[in-house]
């Protein structure tokens, strides 16, 4: 099976604290990896390393067998759903949802059609499309963020506690939708969560990260 993410012998320190030491991980095409661990154990740091937002002190991180840094083509193949409200404050809900499609040059009307179809699945009313992030509830903003992260059909989707701002009803609906997308596509998912039941429902593989001790 094709490797999508390969992390080899990575060490990463943050403020005199060893977050990872000689860390190795291989993620194959079609995997749904759930990363579990206590707060501060390095779960979100792992996503930062994969996204190229953080650079390891030692070792290498490759995506699609290439280094991600400053590679615009590779970045188009990745979707990222952050924890909480990470929407662009100067764009309304529709503009946020269609942002990646616009970057790819899709026709505006076609992009909005795609967004409206996903919004309907996620229980977002059409009246919300013109609202800006500060006019949305936490759950509404989170759902808009999820759409923005998956609408361009990326090959690799990274999710950082994506359901944290949702009530139980919308949490279950979106878990079901993410599971459906995974089952009906060849996309690879990496999701950070503290919820073991969530991991059991969605994951094909799990990884538990434990915090390392501070450097001497």
TrEMBL record:
UniProt key word Transcription regulation: no
Domain ABC transporter: 5-215
Coiled coil ranges: none
This protein's record includes keyword ATP-binding: yes
SMART domains linked: AAA (SM00382)
One Pfam family per UniProt: ABC_tran
Keywords linked to the UniProt accession: ATP-binding, Nucleotide-binding, Transport
Single Gene Ontology MF annotation: ATP hydrolysis activity
InterPro entries: AAA+_ATPase (IPR003593), ABC_SmlMolc_Importer (IPR050093), ABC_transporter-like_ATP-bd (IPR003439), ABC_transporter-like_CS (IPR017871), P-loop_NTPase (IPR027417)
Protein name stated in the entry: Osmoprotection ATP-binding protein
Organism: Helicobacter pylori
